Amino acid sequence: AGNSGLEPGVLRAFTFFALVAAILALLLANRAFGTSLRDALQGTNRALWIILLVIAAVGGALLYVPALQIPLGFAPLGWPMLGMVLVTGLGLLGVFELTKAIFGLPAKRGQT
Question: How high is the pLDDT of residue 47?
């Protein structure tokens, strides 16, 4: 991407949000102990929902508040770049879930 002529601020912001998407994919894949991601999201885990809301709020602020973008050297991302960030996160989540389905589920806690 650096050789594609992207402005450094756009590249920096894209890389940051792609990393956040990858971390969220890891978090969601780890929370879904079964093969169903729906079960992890429908649970009553308030901490997970609070974390997701905080990430969304901070991410939105970083995307749309220039006073926060300037110190980090971010440039605004357009919809195509945000779509690529979304595809990155969802793609990794799919790979993680597929890997769990192929290689088996982790052992339940307390069992050997």
Answer: 80
Of 49, 69, 71, the C-alpha closest to 61 is 69
Residue with the two structure tokens 């756009």: 10
**Cα distance between residue 4 and residue 2, in whole Å:** 6
DSSP secondary structure code for residue 5 in this structure: T
25: how many CB neighbours lie within 10 A of its CB? 20
pLDDT (average), residues 39-57? 79
The gap from C-alpha 102 to its chain's centroid, in whole angstroms, comes to 23
pTM over 0.90? The answer is no
Contact 18, 85 (CB under 8 A): yes
State the Cα–Cα distance between residues 51 and 24, nearest whole angstrom.
10
Token output for 97 = 């879930």
